[in-house]
Design goal:
The protein has 3 helices and 4 strands, in the order E-H-E-H-E-E-H. With 77 residues, the chain is of the alpha+beta class.
């Protein structure tokens, strides 16, 4: 199971990113633990200065803007 965190203040792009990851994981049958992190200190702790950020299994894989479907699918392989 992949541990995925979406980092962001609650903006529309953050919500879109969270939903896209959830939808794609469900469609592919990939088990994920999906968590939304809105605490700015925690977000900065990952070194993310531009949101939404995505952390998978403790590693930042994306920051700034909504990731495209192909990028998300590559994370779930």
């Amino acid at each position: 199971m992949k541990d995925i965190k979406v980092l962001g203040s609650g903006c529309a792009n953050c919500a879109t990113t969270l939903k896209l990851i959830d939808d794609i994981a469900r469609a592919r049958g990939v088990a994920v633990k999906l968590e939304k992190i809105e605490d700015m200190a925690a977000i900065l702790g990952y070194g993310v200065m531009s949101t939404p950020g995505v952390v998978i299994d403790g590693k930042v894989v994306h920051a700034g803007g909504v990731p495209d479907r192909k990028k998300i699918e590559s994370w779930l392989n």
